[in-house]
Prior knowledge:
Elements: H1 29-38, H2 54-61, H3 63-67, H4 72-84, H5 88-116, H6 122-131, H7 133-165, H8 173-189, H9 192-222, H10 234-237, H11 255-265, H12 273-277, H13 286-315, H14 327-336, H15 341-359, H16 362-377, H17 395-411, H18 416-419, H19 425-445, H20 450-474, H21 480-509, H22 512-517, E1 523-529, H23 535-546, E2 551-558, H24 561-573, E3 581-585, H25 591-602, E4 608-618, H26 631-639, E5 645-653, H27 682-691, E6 706-721, E7 724-732, E8 737-742, E9 756-766, E10 769-773, E11 776-781
Parallel strand pairs: 1-2, 1-4, 2-3, 4-5, 8-10
Antiparallel strand pairs: 6-7, 6-9, 7-8, 9-10, 9-11
Helix pairs in contact: 2-9, 2-13, 4-5, 4-11, 5-11, 5-13, 5-19, 5-20, 6-7, 6-19, 7-8, 7-15, 7-16, 7-17, 7-19, 7-21, 8-9, 8-17, 9-13, 9-14, 9-15, 11-20, 13-14, 14-15, 16-17, 19-20, 25-26
Amino acid sequence: xxxxxxxxxxxxxxxxxxxxxxxxxxxxxxxxxxxxxxxxxxxxxxxxxxxxxxxxxxxxxxxxxxxxxxxxxxxxxxxxxxxxxxxxxxxxxxxxxxxxxxxxxxxxxxxxxxxxxxxxxxxxxxxxxxxxxxxxxxxxxxxxxxxxxxxxxxxxxxxxxxxxxxxxxxxxxxxxxxxxxxxxxxxxxxxxxxxxxxxxxxxxxxxxxxxxxxxxxxxxxxxxxxxxxxxxxxxxxxxxxxxxxxxxxxxxxxxxxxxxxxxxxxxxxxxxxxxxxxxxxxxxxxxxxxxxxxxxxxxxxxxxxxxxxxxxxxxxxxxxxxxxxxxxxxxxxxxxxxxxxxxxxxxxxxxxxxxxxxxxxxxxxxxxxxxxxxxxxxxxxxxxxxxxxxxxxxxxxxxxxxxxxxxxxxxxxxxxxxxxxxxxxxxxxxxxxxxxxxxxxxxxxxxxxxxxxxxxxxxxxxxxxxxxxxxxxxxxxxxxxxxxxxxxxxxxxxxxxxxxxxxxxxxxxxxxxxxxxxxxxxxxxxxxxxxxxxxxxxxxxxxxxxxxxxxxxxxxxxxxxxxxxxxxxxxxxxxxxxxxxxxxxxxxxxxxxxxxxxxxxxxxxxxxxxxxxxxxxxxxxxxxxxxxxxxxxxxxxxxxxxxxxxxxxxxxxxxxxxxxxxxxxxxxxxxxxxxxxxxxxxxxxxxxxxxxxxxxxxxxxxxxxxxxxxxxxxxxxxxxxxxxxxxxxxxxxxxxxxxxxxxxxxxxxxxxxxxxxxxxxxxxxxxxxxxxxxxxxxxxxxxxx
Length: 785
């Protein structure tokens, strides 16, 4: 081919590329059902369009943290009130302020985390980069457990709020909670943006409605219009007894129970980690948007938690042993009244509380899959967790989270007080490691105001570690023992998985480069193992002939004399004598062992490479799998142990294979069986259309004619020829395919599968195909735009 793209004279011009009609091959029923339930699949290049704006991110990532204002104050009072009675209302605000002080320093720490780790973040990545992967697994275990417990606690709290409005639903508490979890599971399988659309409304509805109650209540209290409510008896509340206030600053509470109430109220801070874990899901500028969302979320939480604690102090809203009516519902009653408009407002606010609590666990459905994908990417969890699903969500992580959350809900009967003992330990452990990691990060770099950052992060780490200690001590008998029991085995389990992956990688990589360059053995023998003469066996034999080996052997192991004789007679009757059939004895009927011994004899001379082909019949009906064994798989696993023997399974689809005399192109398919390819993003198509003015369809390009074409890169190959590496890519526009060859350039930035470009040059030939050699091109969009 000359510099203009032409080739020397040739008797025949190359044939234009042929575009395969994918609609001729029907999709499975399972895939069509998935499309119906989840919507059309999102292609990988649409991942950028799935990023979150601040408004949507607040709706997706804030429910866990914001919803804790619906029960944070109650969790403080539920410890203090049975012990010191009315004195609890004097201590609830100081305890809340102590919790918000921790929130302040942890927020400052995480603002720095987000600024440094803008692609993937969270305490796991901070610990991994600063303390190594093994210390990071402590954060992984703590946060994975916390995310699971978060779903169970939030949905259980939501059900408690619902039963405050409709007490008749109390017997169905567990099943309502499970049903809500399944709704969140379904919503998140549809994609992160879809989840944002579904769950953003409850978040904003709750923040606005509860803020109005808090502001109204504080104004009424300042004007002397809000008063304490009568205190119910201990029997009415469900407590065995209600103590009386004592003397001293703690009013007789005692340090242990003060710390316990602080630990209970600390659940209000859960959910803060989700922003940094999901920082990669924000729109650009990533760090700025994530930081602003974090600040807004923490300010909203601080205002609501402090406001509900002040209203509890003023109104004397008491915690019930059963969990209903909730403290927040009593405060709403006290502020807006119980009759007329007040009753309507109560239903509105309580409905908002129910919605935010029920959907509060949705934060975990975003944070858990992202965190699990990070850990799996480091080979400490199964790598299936790194794969994005039908709608670009980490579907496997969503499945795992849902399963374990439902197990917890059923095991603890959806009781918030029982689950809260497992709560918050994990997230405060993460806070500790994040703060400590950022201290080391700043000490190592010593850039900017690093001394101030060291103080802030160090104080955050110390405070968080203190809270972890308080939680373990005060909540040990109430469920924290389960975290202490599960945590260490889970940690060592992650290390075991990592060692297993490392061992496998060592085995797969050791000598791989040398093996690819090892001399090819002189002879190649292909062995086809058949059990009977059918279409599956015929397909394997046909494939074996296409390999053009030095010797082709068709082998049948004799374990059934009648079957062997039938095969021999059919072979002779059909005139297949030119393909010799070897009948090999297998006296003990162990076909896999017989295959090993036979293949070992084939390569015994040390100069032969052997390929064993195994026909396998593939059945589409699940019940049909029960009617057939996995003999081909067993044989393949066995013969792979023999050096220079490779096993290849040749599948044959029984259910969908057409009759031999009918060509596929002649097979009409019903419309319902045809699946269109997912459309590309509209904005990219429009950009391509604007630049494609004056181009021609690929099907109309002609050999030795200059052409301008536009399309999408379908495949890319780096081809080494004559000592030079060339980049070859196939450009398609729906009418045909054209090969673009860039000589001497193994890689060009932006040219990858999914990229869209306009190319101009002389159409010639390259290895018998229409091609443009070294064309001028304009890149319209990269593969991820």
